[in-house]
Amino acid sequence: QVQLVESGGGLVQAGGSLRLSCAASVRTFTNYAVGWFRQAPGKEREFVAAISRNGGNRDYSDSVQGRFAISRDSAKNTVYLQMNSLQPEDTAEYYCAAVSSSRYSLYRRREQYDYWGQGTQVTVSS
User: Could you report the per-residue pLDDT of 91-107, keeping only the tens digit for each?
Assistant: First the structure.
């Protein structure tokens, strides 16, 4: 069982930055591909970014490409989402998710992930 804990959310003005963290409870976190998703009120949870278990492959949604960066620190069992040039439409609850995977795999669909965190709120004011 993998427990994921997100942190780093908050209130920021448009154009600002935040860095979200996703800390895992297992030492073997490098066996897991990780994704970030977000859900705004009244909307479905949507894919934001993903990173392969070895950190070598990354994937981003079109809406965040060039503004967000996903990375992982194996020594800290943590995956990060650096969010720059934030806009009001980025306001949402952000979730990280993990799935045991092959070395280079990436996943965009919610149903492909087995473990989820509780979420962290990001609010961007205009």
Answer: 999 999 999 998 899 99
